[in-house]
Amino acid sequence: MEMNIKFPVIDLSKLNGEERDQTMALIDDACQNWGFFELVNHGLPYDLMDNIERMTKEHYKKHMEQKFKEMLRSKGLDTLETEVEDVDWESTFYLRHLPQSNLYDIPDMSNEYRLAMKDFGKRLEILAEELLDLLCENLGLEKGYLKKVFHGTTGPTFATKLSNYPPCPKPEMIKGLRAHTDAGGLILLFQDDKVSGLQLLKDGDWVDVPPLKHSIVINLGDQLEVITNGKYKSVVHRVMTQKEGNRMSIASFYNPGSDAEISPATSLVGKDSKYPSFVFDDYMKLYAGLKFQPKEPRFEAMKNAEAAADLNPVAAVETF
Ligand code: OGA
Ligand code: NI
């Protein structure tokens, strides 16, 4: 309970006033010690957020709920007798904004819903880039450094996962989403303001990310841990299922472009870095099979790949 009170809630509008320094310090502390923080007064219009919430809930009822129930039946989850550890109790669909939008390829969205998501995506992209610059400032990196790293040759990847976590008759038997860290860069989450469920692991305890109306929850993915050489943390989180209520969550992932070269920033590396350097897409290939495993072996595997690549002669010698 006490933990929740300390959960970092940051009033972004204070960056424009005399509390700027304190606010920057709160962001830095959250990035180092929580890997998460919750933004209020972030500048996103509340009526846009309300419309998106309404349309996401309507869309679930109209186009997703039936499919979710069929999935439960086909996987034998309608009767939960024992703990299930290889499936998540969630109903999701994805939209990509960057490098190319696929908004018009997604079935069953009303035009109003598409336009609202387009507007929301653009505003979140701008917010993500502003936040990256705040991180740069706190890290002593030049303005634009992180954005440039994420750019690669084709610009960042930016996508939104729209989820509903429907009520579950036996919450102790299955998670809404199993514990994991996020692979990418910065995650911006618009979560239900009534139904809770998201928890992060802090000092060995699970801490609730408190629902707060019109807030945007931010968390850092594995790439920011690598680039900051471990100064900032990608933190394990999960979603619990609930007996009552349907939890909406809209998570937008601002990630590096597929060919972006990721490595610890030189100015943040002392004698030696424990983090690898790699091309982002190679990390994603590894992550795809290991999402619900700890991040450390992923970093190790990328280090080993890097060492193997270093051993390879540039011009291959013919061996046949
Ligand atoms: C994720 C995630 C949290 C949520 O999709 O990676 O952690 O509340 N989602 O949906
Ligand atoms: Ni996540």
What are its keywords?
globular; 320 residues; 37% helix; 13 strands; 21% strand; single chain; Jelly Rolls; binds N-oxalylglycine; four-stranded antiparallel sheet; alpha+beta
Provide structural commentary.
- The chain has a single domain, classed as B-lactam Antibiotic, Isopenicillin N Synthase, Chain (Jelly Rolls), CATH 2.60.120.
- The chain contains 8 helices and 13 strands.
- Strands 1-2-9-6-11-4-3 form a 7-stranded mixed β-sheet. A 4-stranded antiparallel β-sheet has the order 5-10-7-8, with no helix packed on it.
- Helix 2 crosses helix 4 and helix 3 crosses helix 4.
- The longest helix has 29 residues.
- The mean pLDDT is 95.
- Bound molecules: N-oxalylglycine and nickel (II) ion.
- Nickel (II) ion (NI) binds next to loops.
- InterPro entries: DIOX_N, IPNS-like_FE2OG_OXY, IPNS-like_sf, Oxoglu/Fe-dep_dioxygenase_dom, Plant_2OG-oxidoreductases.
- Pfam families: 2OG-FeII_Oxy, DIOX_N.
- This is aminocyclopropanecarboxylate oxidase.
